[in-house]
Amino acid sequence: MTRKILVLPGDGIGPEITAEASRILAACQAHGLDIEIEEGLVGGSAYDEHGEPLPAVTLDKAKAADAILLGAVGGPKWDKLEDLSKRPEKGLLGLRKNLGLFANLRPAITYPQLASASSLKPELVAGLDIMIVRELTGGIYFGQPRGIEVRDGQRVGFNTYVYSESEIERIGRVAFELAQKRGKRLCSVDKANVLEVTILWREVMERLAPEYPDVELSHMYVDNAAMQLVRAPKQFDVMVTGNMFGDILSDAAAMLTGSIGMLPSASLNESGQGMYEPCHGSAPDIAGKGIANPLATILSVAMMLRYSLGEPEFASRIEAAVGKVLDDGLRTADIASEGTRTVSTCEMGDAVLAAF
Amino acid sequence: MTRKILVLPGDGIGPEITAEASRILAACQAHGLDIEIEEGLVGGSAYDEHGEPLPAVTLDKAKAADAILLGAVGGPKWDKLEDLSKRPEKGLLGLRKNLGLFANLRPAITYPQLASASSLKPELVAGLDIMIVRELTGGIYFGQPRGIEVRDGQRVGFNTYVYSESEIERIGRVAFELAQKRGKRLCSVDKANVLEVTILWREVMERLAPEYPDVELSHMYVDNAAMQLVRAPKQFDVMVTGNMFGDILSDAAAMLTGSIGMLPSASLNESGQGMYEPCHGSAPDIAGKGIANPLATILSVAMMLRYSLGEPEFASRIEAAVGKVLDDGLRTADIASEGTRTVSTCEMGDAVLAAF
Ligand SMILES: CC(C)[C@H](C(=O)O)[C@@H](O)C(=O)O
Ligand SMILES: CC(C)[C@H](C(=O)O)[C@@H](O)C(=O)O
């Protein structure tokens, strides 16, 4: 059965990095993987073409796809759009919401070849391997009511941070199951000393715990979690948290590895359909220069093969190829260091293909 | 005119560290500072005694004081209290709200003597000096509606992230004015690509900017700010943000310095009345052992002398005394390193007094 892959390059460096990842997909195809690849527009580039960051045609293609590969969205060009609903980010948020991609898996891994690129002392990050599970279709990102309105003669902005028990339970189960397959430790991050919504979050996590007796559940306040990630990141195995805290903590964790240009992510729904994208953003400052690191996007293809397409062998081959080019000393500018060879986006893609 | 100082030791290590800070206050008194020192209960210790984390008697004393010195609140003993309004943290939040302490100043400074204590590479943090200005009486901490209720047959938790223009303007002015006195760069942190409340935040900051032409205003999304703090913290001078983001970012920033046991904070209202407290928490795990670091609390006294009591000379004398004990190689356990002498809480207090 032919599986459908939708590639959404997006904005900024998105087209450059997804181009390299698409070459890897094509290589898998040539080696017998039965897939069909389509492209679509999302984000600012979709807005420029269709006046919408998530045109109906893209959403239809996305719904029909088995998996989606996304580059990145956003850029200063669209930051001034008065109407928030037209911003590039709304394309991404719309895909997440419409496809029900509630489980965002964000690994923070230090590649042994890149440990010295971290701003942390090498011994604190060597061997780091955290999985952050972020709830992606709820919380303050989507809560109602929201807006800006006049109250008592002045404007007031407001958003609603809301979670139901079933939303919390659903993401909690994903996190517990991942912890079972890994180091068996799950840290749930909340602000239960201040926010009622996270008191419920903590309660539900506690209620689930007995069903996963092999997993050790702990709780941490978000401010402390931000500190502990900086102080001693290796204390964590799996972390689970809501949409907003997850956005902040997963980016901080990714940056600590020193390899943010290397980190893929997966966003899954209940039927295993997934969207895969690099952890980094659209980096408009370097767009079009051919120097962006395509490895996070290439590794996102590996995650796609593993989580949505059930092709772990192809996934491992891609990961091994990436490991080989790093061993060979090839680096894009963002991860370059003394004694390594700096290559372009395209040369990096060539090298991974050659090692595949 | 005799100024009134209220000391609120709180919970955990609070009593130990405020005891040392009170000795410094007493030393200032002996050197001619005209103050009157009172004590009061807040947090878990107040709950144990009065059934309330912020008893009326404490609030009355606080209102009558020119400045408050707080240790820290909270601990596992009270974490199970079903009624959130009785939790120790509510004592702290109640003081902030009732006294209108909207401006929280959290310096993140690397002490030259302690640069090696940071988990970041020394060159990234040497000389670091960031001031984080956190709005403290609004945002999601206090927004209504809030709670946990049954909707469509299941429980739902919700909180409201809300700011009015005047609240944003008030904290914005504090931040711009601080930037004017420092490096003249202000970075406002928001999530304006997703949250309406922070679109208004960004707009108000932009509107204020022309009134402070010598200050360069920039904006950063909170996820990026968390990354940039890890990657290259010295890029920042003053940062301004809301209550929740400020909680997370100021703790991360404090931890990066490696000197969180050294960092004071000030919370000010419109009339200059202030509450001063260390950035770190109540550390219940080491409470009562006599090993906590009292320097953040002692430096909070210095901040109090400078910001609320108009006594910059006394403030400088305290800061110089702290510098001297660090130069002499004295360290509490949290900041100890090879070649330094580890001392107890009380010995550290003795040393600062001797150097005063
Ligand atoms: C672009 C933005 C809306 C998005 C988010 O906040 O979720 C991004 O930061 C991410 O983490 O994927
Ligand atoms: C104790 C807690 C309520 C408090 C907060 O979240 O504001 C603390 O973390 C702080 O930053 O002062």
From TrEMBL, chains A, B:
Species of provenance: Billgrantia aerodenitrificans
Residues at which NAD(+) binds: 281-293
Subunit description: Homodimer.
HAMAP family: LeuB_type1
Cofactor note: Binds 1 Mg(2+) or Mn(2+) ion per subunit.
Protein name: 3-isopropylmalate dehydrogenase
Catalytic reactions on record: (2R,3S)-3-isopropylmalate + NAD(+) = 4-methyl-2-oxopentanoate + CO2 + NADH
Taxonomic lineage of the native organism: Bacteria, Pseudomonadati, Pseudomonadota, Gammaproteobacteria, Oceanospirillales
Principal EC category: oxidoreductase
EC code(s) of this entry: 1.1.1.85
GO molecular function, a single term: 3-isopropylmalate dehydrogenase activity
Subcellular location, record wording: Cytoplasm
Binding site for substrate: 96, 106, 134, 223
Source organism, top-level taxon: Bacteria
Pfam families given in the database record: Iso_dh
Binding site for Mg(2+): 223, 247, 251
